[in-house]
Design brief:
mainly beta, 10 Kd Chaperonin, Protein Cpn10, Chain O, 6-stranded antiparallel β-sheet, two-stranded antiparallel ribbon, 1 helix, 5% helix
């Protein structure tokens, strides 16, 4: 991938969830499931820039699995794939 985010931005690829139950029934995702999504961090910027000019590194790293609000991100299509660009502050949680 050749997307390199700047400063406190990160690039995330959404992990597709099954829209079937274990028994094979189809279901429509709820509004919450459409807004809050799980993804894998593909790349990160260098970090936050303080008023004094120092760079503070980000807490998330490439390879982390995160929960984020899809509405707080920008959808980017690059080389036939869809990615989401968002600020680290819009990450709700890192899944460990």
């Amino acid at each position: 991938m050749s997307l390199r985010p700047l400063r406190d931005f990160i690039v995330v690829s959404v992990i597709k969830s099954d829209e079937k139950t274990a028994s094979g029934l189809l279901y429509k995702p709820s509004i919450v499931e459409e807004k809050i999504v799980t993804g894998t961090v593909l790349s990160t910027g260098t970090g936050y820039l303080t008023d004094g000019g120092a760079v503070v590194p980000l807490d998330v790293q490439a390879g982390d699995t995160v929960l984020f609000n899809k509405q707080m991100s920008v959808e980017v299509k690059h080389q036939g794939e869809t990615f989401f660009l968002l600020r680290e502050e819009h990450v709700l949680s890192v899944i460990q």
